[in-house]
Amino acid sequence: MFIKRLFPNRWARIAAWTGAAVAWGTTALAVQAATQTTTDAAEEPPPPPPPTTVAEVTTTTMAPVPEPPERGLVVVRYTPVPPPPPEVIVRTVTVQAQPTPSSGGGGGGSTAPPPPPPPTKSKGS
Amino acid sequence: MKLHTFRAMGTEVSVVLDEGHSAEQIERFFASRERRFSRFRPDSDLSRLNADPRETVPVPPDMARILTLAEQMRTRTEGLVDPAVGDAVRRWGYDVTFEEIAGSRREAPATPSRTPRWRIDDGTLTRRPGTALDFGGIAKGYTCDQAVEMGLALVASAGGDVRSAHPEATVEILDPWDDRSLTVSIGRGALATSSRTRRRWSTDVGEAHHIIDPRTGRPADTPILSASAWTATAVEAEAAAKAILIRGADGLAWAERQPWIRSALAVWHDGSVYATVGWEVAA
């Protein structure tokens, strides 16, 4: 009755009901969307922490290769090996005994050149 | 020709003797030089000189001679080889013979020591108070030089310092792993190897070795494990090898510019071996 009195025209009532339904649906969707947004926001993982500072590594100042001399550098050996273990016992020059014949004399005149001495070793002290 | 080996000056000495040479005589000669130049013997001339409080001291002729040579080496190496590091060596814990150091732990000096200055003029040593001299390898090289020049041996080798009067002398240069780096002909000349992998000991700040850098008063921080030099005399070879080792990366380039160094070789920290040109490689 009230509706008929307020909207006496049939098409006006239809329009009023349609508008009310649309308004109700829109409100319902808006409320649902707002609730979903709130939930999503609550479940979002925290932002990743800022990148941590990389620990400083002590770098050695060891030169990779020697500075080349003007007349050239000879690579005698290039076979990288681990550093030698600590050595605390003194062990120094050793020379291999190689008995060599003496340049025996006898008679005058020229003498043959002396034979070379045995090789000596040098390792450092 | 025969080989004779004995122990003197805290190391093994090898000499090549020809006819007329006396093994006993050469041993006595090395013993006499040890009594003069060892800093480990309290009765040596050097220990008495270091204990003398005077700043200006007249020294015996042989002491004046080795001091003059040491002064020349200090100049040629631009101050890198200086017996006045004796104070720093002691402060770093090398105050007893190396046999006594082995296995022990020493305290590092709190502050780097400053190398005092000294000079020798006409047989008179002038030095700053507290200056302690340590000839180290210079004394070994000097003794080898004298032994050969005085005709006591054809070849004399002490602690890696070799001096030869034989035209066909060869030397095997060993690396810290005891592998042969190179066999070279030195003829009438000298060769010495200086290494920081030997005579090492522990301190409270890490490992130390006996090669002191006079610029810092600390064990040399260098990429070179051992360096060898070929020169005319063993004193020169000893000084050259030590200077190359202390200089580090530019050691070989520096050696190549020195007219008194014939050739040089360095064993790098990674085991590689580099050399200047000029070595006469023996078979």
End-to-end span of chain B in angstroms?
A: 21 Å
CATH top level of chain B? Answer: Alpha Beta
Number of strands of chain B: 18
Q: Judging by the overall fold, what is the CATH architecture of chain B?
A: Roll
Q: What is the CA-atom radius of gyration of chain B, in angstroms?
A: 18 Å
Mean pLDDT of chain B: 87
Class by SSE composition of chain A: mainly alpha
Structural class of chain B, by secondary structure, is: alpha+beta
Largest sheet of chain A: none
Summarize the helices and strands and which ones pair or pack.
The complex is a heterodimer of chains A (125) and B (283).
Chain A (H helix, E strand, L loop, with lengths): L1 H5 L3 H34 L29 E5 L42 E3 L3
Chain B lengths: L1 E7 L2 E7 L5 H15 L7 H7 L4 E3 L2 H16 L9 H6 L6 H4 L3 E2 L11 E4 L2 E4 L9 H13 L5 E4 L2 E4 L5 E5 L5 E6 L4 E6 L4 E4 L2 E4 L2 E2 L4 E2 L4 E8 L2 H14 L3 H7 L5 E6 L4 E4 L7
Parallel strand pairs in B: 4-12
Antiparallel strand pairs in B: 1-2, 2-7, 3-6, 5-6, 7-8, 8-11, 9-10, 11-16, 12-13, 14-15, 16-17, 17-18
Summarize the structure.
The complex is a heterodimer of chains A (125) and B (283). Chain A is mainly alpha-helical.
Sum up the structure in keywords.
heterodimer; A: about 120 residues; mainly alpha; about 30% helix; about 5% strand; B: about 280 residues; alpha+beta; T-fold; 8-stranded antiparallel β-sheet; 3-stranded antiparallel β-sheet; 8 helices
Written overview of the protein:
The complex is a heterodimer of chains A (125) and B (283). Chain A has 125 residues and is mainly α. Helix content of chain A is 31%, strand content 6%. Mean pLDDT of chain A is 61; it is low at 50-60 and 87-112. Chain A has a domain at 2-37. Chain A has helices at residues 2-6, 10-43, and strands at 73-77, 120-122. Chain B has one domain: ApbE-like domains (T-fold), CATH 3.10.520. Chain B contains 8 helices and 18 strands. In chain B, the strands form 5 sheets. In chain B, strands 1-2-7-8-11-16-17-18 form an 8-stranded antiparallel β-sheet. Chain B has a 3-stranded antiparallel β-sheet with strand order 3-6-5, covered by helices on one side. A 3-stranded mixed β-sheet of chain B has the order 4-12-13, with no helix packed on it. In chain B, strand 17 and strand 18 (273-276) form a beta hairpin. In chain B, helix 3 (61-76) packs parallel to helix 7 (234-247). Chain B starts with a strand and ends in a 7-residue tail after the last strand. Classes of the chains: A mainly alpha (125), B alpha+beta (283). Chains A and B meet through strand 1 and strand 2 of A and strand 1, strand 2, helix 5, strand 7 and strand 8 of B.
